[in-house]
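Supplementary Note 3. Input sequence used for the single-chain structure prediction.
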Amino acid sequence: MRDIVDYLGPYTWWVLGLILLGLEIIAPGFVFLWFAIAAMMVGVLAMFVDLTWQWMVFLFGVLSLTTLIVGRKWASSRSKNEGDEMLNQRGSRYIGRTFILRAPIEQGQGSLNIDDTVWRVRGPDLPEGTLVKVVRIEGVSLVVEEPKAT
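The predicted structure, written as C-alpha cells, is reproduced below.
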C-alpha cells in the first residue's frame, strides 16, 4: 500500500476522492460527497505544495469537517425552498376554483370529478352541470357554493 501511495503521490487523494464519490453513488446520503471534495482539494494542494503525509491527513480532516458543515447548511437551506407545501392537503389546492358538477348535489351531498379524482362535496342542492366554487374543506369533503355573478 505504501508503494502505491509513493507511486501516485498527490494523485492518491484524487483516487480517494473518486472512491468516496463511488461510495456516495452506492450508498446515497449526501455524506461521502463532502469527504470526496475534501480529498480532491488536498490532492490539488499537494500538486503545488510539497506537504508531508501528516499535513495532508491533517488538511483532509479539517477540510472534511469544513465541507461537511458548509455543505449540510447549504443543502438544508436549499431544501426549505423546494417541495410542495400542500402535498398532503390536496383539497386545499381547489379552494377558490370553480368546477362543473357532473352529478347533482342532493340533500346537501354529492360528488365532483376533478381531473382523475372523485371528491365528495357538500353544499346546497344543485343540478348536474351547475358551475360551483370550492369555498373550504371539511374533513375529506369539499364545501361548494354557486359562484356569485359579477
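Strands lie at 98-100, 109-114, 117-122, 131-138, 141-145. The first strand starts at residue 98 and ends at 100.
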